[in-house]
Design a protein that fits this description.
Number of domains: 2
CATH superfamily of the largest domain: Aromatic compound dioxygenase
Distance between the termini: 60 Å
Largest sheet: 6 strands, mixed
Number of helices: 6
Order of helices and strands: HHHHHEEEEEEEEHEEEEEEE
CATH topology of the largest domain: Protocatechuate 3,4-Dioxygenase, subunit A
Shape: globular
CATH class of the largest domain: Mainly Beta
Bound molecules: fe (ii) ion
């Protein structure tokens, strides 16, 4: 059957009723989006002749996999698509330059210790891991040092696990997570136990989907950042180690040109020099974080 079936009067009437378009009250924007979303799904069902069995199989997948949706979104490229879309809108508005943004991922935890100066991110021994030394500057569009910046940094341990999300529960709260308050010179430096890349949880909903698509679920080793500073747009980004086997094949599409420094490895240490550049904020509302719901924990 042809997708024009969705355009029949009976189906269009059903859509109006389902999205509340034919009644007063409710949120107009939500009604419009809901109507389009349901209609898109209907078109999909007809286009691919999706059976009742397949429909309920997919519904069940979403029910069971709901707690992994934060990982499925980057896995299917939608979180990266949001970055591309925001970039394109910025370019249209003449807002270009600065360190590229890239996906936040689902594993930030608010409330990490706020420290100053050369910071040690790692609270746990992680004895076999090399030490990563990372340093650089945070400047604005004209190369001016950004004053009063706070650099949020978080990464996995050498087994690829994040504190607060580690199924072994062996990590100290906020291990490999800090907020670093920078001085007037915009310089930062920290050291930590080198993170490893990781894969999505075996047999979890993301893993099941990746296997069914014939894809892998691996990320290269990486370090996440938010950088916030008065007068500048908050930057959400991450660096991925350029010498990681998955550097150019990240299942979450978090790697981007300009964010792939290669660590200088020597013995049990690795060094990365990396400078960040922020865009100036147009106003207060332009400075903040996205409204994404994030995990929070009390400072240790
Ligand atoms: Fe990550």
């Amino acid at each position: 059957m042809d997708t024009s079936f969705v355009k029949t009067a009976e189906v269009q009437h059903l859509l109006d009723r389902a999205a509340g378009v034919d009644v007063a009250g409710g949120n107009q924007r939500l009604k419009a989006i809901t109507r389009d979303l349901i209609e898109s799904l209907m078109v999909l069902i007809v286009k691919h002749d999706i059976s009742e069995d397949e429909f309920w199989q997919a519904t069940n997948y979403l029910i069971k996999g709901a707690d992994e949706l934060g990982l499925i979104m980057p896995g299917i490229g939608l979180e990266h698509f949001l970055d591309l879309y925001m970039d394109a809108k910025d370019a249209e508005a003449g807002l270009t330059g600065g360190t590229p943004r890239t996906i936040e991922g689902p594993l930030y935890v608010a409330g990490a210790p706020l420290v100053e100066g050369e910071a040690n991110l790692t609270s746990d021994p992680d004895e076999d891991a090399p030490t990563l030394y990372m340093h650089g500057t945070v400047t604005g569009p004209d190369g001016e040092p950004v004053k009063d910046a706070i650099l949020h940094v978080w990464h996995a341990d050498s087994k690829g696990w994040y504190s607060h999300f580690d199924p072994t529960r062996e990590q100290t709260p906020f291990n490999n997570r800090r907020r670093i308050k920078l001085g007037a010179d915009g310089r930062y430096s920290f050291h930590s136990k080198m993170p490893s890349g990781y894969s999505c949880p075996p047999e979890g909903a993301t893993d099941v989907l990746m296997k069914a698509l014939g894809r892998h679920g691996n990320r290269p080793a990486h370090v996440h950042f938010f950088i916030e500073a008065p007068g500048y747009r908050t930057l959400t980004t991450q660096i991925n180690f350029g010498d990681d086997p998955f550097a150019k094949d990240d299942f979450a599409f978090g790697t981007r040109e300009g964010l792939l420094p290669v660590p200088t490895r020597q013995g049990d240490r690795a060094d990365i020099a990396f400078d960040f550049q922020l865009q100036r904020a147009a106003g207060k509302s332009d400075e903040g974080f996205s409204a994404r719901v994030r995990t929070e924990a009390a400072a240790a």
